[in-house]
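Lab notebook: predicted structure, single chain.

Context: the supervisor wants predicted structures on file for every construct in the current expression panel, including those that have not yet been purified. This is the next one on the list. No modifications to the sequence; it matches the entry in the shared construct table.
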Amino acid sequence: MPMSPSQRAESSSGGVYKCIHGPRVAIRSAPSATAAVLDTIHPGTLLRISEVLGGWARLDDDELWARWTANWPRWPKGVTEDGEDVAGDQALPEKAFILVDGSQVGLKTQLLERLNDAEAQQARWPFREAMEIRCLEVNLAARRKEPGAGALLRKRFVDAALRYVGTPYHRSFHDPASSKCKPGSRLKDAPLFLDHMQLIQKAVEDLKQDFGFLLISNCKPQHCRRTLPVSFEDPEDCEPGDLVFYEELDEGGPSGKICHVEIFLGGDSGTESLGSMAWNAHSRTKDMDGVQIFEDFRIPKESGKAGYRYHCHSIQSWLLSE
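Prediction complete. Output recorded below exactly as produced.
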């Protein structure tokens, strides 16, 4: 005589399970239909389960870790995926449960089905790559602590950014249909455009395994600045690769908003920087558009335009992936 869904749920052990109920099934903080919902899954989703008791499956530790921390490379501390600041890291749930026995909520079917050993071997657990990357991440984190590793990564960051010199700022400055178009430009269909913040993001992305994180696509300079707690009053304390943030000052106001960022280079003049500006943004571009090296990170005040206050921040916390 075949077992009922309830009996099958009670007798099942741990292993790889597949969601067979739709449109969605809740993962909860406790084995109760009224417990807080931590996440939801859909038909076909695979999960690793440690045990099934009382019709509820408990997610195993690997599944728990991967499902809530698999956004790898990590976002820097203090910034969430939507660009908002947070006081601290979101706590990882200690336990998570998912209902197997649908009869407990008035359904006549199971919500999950255990794969047999052969099926489990063939199935690709969606977080397998996350676990592999996690191991790589741990090894790279240890490597970043080695003597000289920080200085080497700092140089590689600068070199990565320098490779983008000549990349245009934004398509609109090269579109003949735009009033902002640079006269004679033929870069409308260039393969890549980078503004000041995107330049930083791209250089970090190119070294994501070394840094151990990414800067989110909509990260703004003020959010980026908050991930770098070490700052300098004197720009002479900057090392190549450190970031200079530009605070645009309102006329007569004590403070303004962070609106621009560049990479400090130093160079022969000791004040060189690498940044991206539109060709007509300021006379310092000399009509060059996009990513370029500036002789001086300081932006001279022009008549009728706001002045700037400069905030220099060390990238040391990035080098250590802190």
